[in-house]
Design a protein that fits this description.
Keywords: Coiled coil, Membrane, Sugar transport, Symport, Transmembrane, Transmembrane helix, Transport. With 523 residues, the protein is an all-alpha fold. The protein has 25 helices and no strands. Helix 3 packs parallel to helix 8 and helix 17 crosses helix 18.
C-alpha cells in the first residue's frame, strides 16, 4: 500500500529524484547536491514571478498617471484613489489568499492570483473612462494580494534553513525588477500619443503571465502543505528533490509532523486559526508584533509614496519636462534594484537584524536630507543653486530606496514568512500583508492632499520621524532568525527569555553602515 502511494507520489513529483534508486541511504555526490540546490533556486525564482506584477504596476503607474490625467481629465483626488486603491484592495486578495492556499495549495493559489491580475490589467489597457479603469485596478489589486502573500510562504516552506533568507528575498528582487521595468516602460513609450502611451504602459504588464503559466509545470507543491493534507508520500517525494540526503528528508518530515501536530491529536489542532490569532498566546502575540509590525513600518516610512510619486517629488525639486522626470525615476528604479542584491548576498551571512539597523538608520538620514533639499529649493533659493538642489533631492531619493532595499524591503518578506508556526503561517502572513497594504494605501491616497497642506518637504520630515521610531521597533521587537529552521524559530518564540536573548548590539552594525554609506555615495 505504501509502495503504491510512493509510486503515485513519484509519478507527479519525483522527476528529478536520483536518490530513489535502491541504493540505500547513500550520500549524494557533489553533482547531485548542486543539482538539488539549482532546483530549489529555480522553484524560488518561478514562485517570485508574481512579485514582478506588483513591482511593474507600482513603477508604471507613477509615469502613466501623468498621461491618464491628460487623456481622461481626472482630478487630483481621483489620481490619489487610482494610485492608492491597489494597496488597499490587495488586502482582500491577501485575506482570501491565506484561506485559499490552505484549501487548494500554495502553487495553485499563485496561479489564481496571476489570472485575476491579468484580467484587471487587460481591462485597464482598454478602459474608455475612469470608472472602467478603476474596475480593472481593483481586480489587479486582488490578484496582487493573492500572489504577494503566498509566494513568500511557498519559498520559505521549500527552502533549507541555511539559504532561506536569501531565497525568501527573491520576491523583493522581483518587485524591484518590476518597478525598474515599469519606469523603463514609462520612458520608452512617453513619446507616443497621450491617448495610446499609458495604455501600452499598462498593457505590457500582461506579459509575465506567460512565464507564470510555464512555472506551474515546473515547481512542485509545498511539502509542508502536503503534510498538512496528510499526503505524506507526496511530501516525501518533494523533499527528496530539494534535500541533500534521505536522512535530512526524514528529519524534516519529523520536524514538520511535530510542528503540524500530525503525530498526536491535541486540542489546538481543532482550534480555528483566526480564533487563535484573535486570542493569541504570549508566543503568538510576539510573532504578531514582529511580523505585522515590520510590514506596517515598511510602508508608513513612505517607500510607496516615494516610488508612486517620484515624478511629483522631482517636479517639486525643480525638474520641469515630463521626459526628464521619467528619466530621473529610471535612476531611482535602477538604484533600488541594484541594492537589493547587497541584501541577498548578506542576509544569510550577516543576519536579519544588522541589515535592518543599517536600513532604518540610513533611511532616516536620507529622508531628513530630502526634506531639507526640498525646503531649500522652495524657501532658500539664494543659498544653493537650483541644479545643486535637484541633484541633492535625486541623491536623497536614490539613497532612501537603496537603504530600503538593503534591509526593510527584503527582510520584511523573510520575517513574515518564517516566524509563524505551520498551522498559522498562511493566515498570519496574510494578516501581516493586510497591515502593510492598508498602511501603503493610506499613505498613497493621502500623500498629495497632505503635501498640499504641509508641503512635500513636510511629508518627508514626517516619514523621517516615523523611520526613527522604526529603529527602536527593530531593537525591541524583531528577533534574529538567521540559520534556524522554521520549527526552531517557533520554539524560540515560545521561550521568551531566549527570544529576548537573541538581541544584538547596535555596535555590531557600524561597519555595515559605513560600507553602505560608501556604496550609496558611489552610486
Amino acid at each position: 500500500m505504501a509502495g503504491a502511494e510512493a509510486a503515485n507520489g513519484r509519478n507527479k513529483y519525483a522527476v528529478l529524484d536520483p536518490s530513489d534508486e535502491p541504493e540505500g541511504r547513500r550520500r549524494p555526490s557533489a553533482w547531485e547536491r548542486r543539482s538539488k540546490e539549482r532546483f530549489v533556486l529555480a522553484c524560488a525564482i518561478f514562485a517570485s514571478l508574481n512579485a514582478i506584477l506588483l513591482g511593474y504596476d507600482v513603477g508604471v503607474m507613477s509615469g502613466a498617471i501623468i498621461y491618464i490625467q491628460k487623456d481622461l481629465h481626472i482630478t487630483e483626488f481621483q489620481e490619489e484613489i487610482l494610485v492608492g486603491c491597489l494597496s488597499v484592495v490587495s488586502l482582500l486578495g491577501s485575506l482570501s489568499g491565506g484561506r485559499t492556499s490552505d484549501a487548494i495549495g500554495r502553487k495553485w493559489t499563485m496561479a489564481l492570483g496571476a489570472i485575476v491580475f491579468q484580467a484587471g490589467a487587460a481591462i485597464m489597457t482598454f478602459a474608455p473612462s475612469f470608472t472602467v479603469l478603476m474596475i480593472g485596478r481593483l481586480l489587479a489589486g486582488v490578484g496582487i494580494g493573492f500572489g504577494a502573500m503566498v509566494s513568500a510562504v511557498y519559498i520559505a516552506e521549500i527552502s533549507p534553513a541555511a539559504a532561506r533568507g536569501t531565497l525568501t528575498s527573491l520576491p523583493e528582487i522581483c518587485i524591484n525588477l518590476g518597478i525598474l521595468l515599469g519606469y523603463v516602460s514609462n520612458y520608452a513609450f512617453s513619446g507616443l500619443s497621450e491617448h495610446i502611451n499609458w495604455r501600452i504602459m499598462l498593457g505590457v504588464g500582461i506579459l509575465p503571465s506567460v512565464f507564470i503559466g510555464f512555472a506551474l509545470f515546473v515547481i512542485p507543491e509545498s511539502p509542508r502543505w502536503l503534510m498538512m493534507e496528510k499526503r505524506v508520500p507526496e511530501a516525501r517525494a518533494v523533499l527528496l528533490q530539494i534535500s541533500e540526503s534521505e536522512a535530512e528528508v526524514e528529519e524534516r518530515i519529523a520536524e514538520i509532523e511535530e510542528a503540524a501536530n500530525l503525530l498526536k491529536s491535541t486540542k489546538s489542532e481543532d482550534k480555528a486559526v483566526w480564533m487563535e490569532l484573535l486570542n493569541p498566546s504570549p508566543a503568538v502575540r510576539r510573532m504578531l508584533y514582529a511580523g505585522c509590525g515590520i510590514q506596517m513600518f515598511q510602508q508608513i516610512t513612505g517607500i510607496d509614496a516615494t516610488v508612486y510619486y517620484s515624478p511629483t517629488i522631482f517636479r517639486d525639486a525643480g525638474i520641469k519636462s515630463d521626459q526628464e522626470l521619467l528619466a530621473a525615476t529610471v535612476a531611482v528604479g535602477f538604484t533600488k534594484t541594484v541594492f537589493i542584491l547587497v541584501a541577498i548576498f548578506l542576509i544569510d551571512k550577516v543576519g536579519r537584524k544588522p541589515l535592518l539597523y543599517v536600513s532604518t538608520i540610513g533611511m532616516t538620514m536620507c529622508l531628513f536630507v530630502l526634506g531639507i533639499a526640498l525646503t531649500l529649493q522652495k524657501h532658500a533659493m539664494g543659498l544653493i543653486s537650483p541644479r545643486i538642489g535637484i541633484d541633492l533631492a535625486v541623491f536623497a531619493v536614490c539613497g532612501n530606496v537603496a537603504f530600503f532595499s538593503i534591509g526593510m524591503g527584503p527582510i520584511c518578506w523573510v520575517l513574515s514568512s518564517e516566524i509563524f508556526p505551520l498551522r498559522l503561517r498562511a493566515q498570519a502572513s496574510a494578516l501581516g500583508q493586510v497591515g502593510g497594504r492598508v498602511s501603503s494605501g493610506l499613505v498613497s491616497m493621502s500623500f498629495l492632499s497632505m503635501a498640499r497642506i504641509i508641503s512635500v518637504a513636510g511629508m518627508f520630515f514626517v516619514f523621517a520621524v516615523i523611520s526613527t521610531v522604526s529603529v527602536a521597533f527593530v531593537y525591541f521587537c524583531v528577533p534574529e532568525t538567521k540559520g534556524k529552521t522554521l520549527e526552531q524559530i517557533e520554539m524560540m518564540f515560545e521561550d521568551g527569555k531566549e527570544w529576548r536573548g537573541s538581541e544584538i548590539e547596535l555596535e555590531d552594525t557600524q561597519h555595515l553602515i559605513q560600507s553602505s554609506k560608501k556604496s550609496v555615495s558611489l552610486g
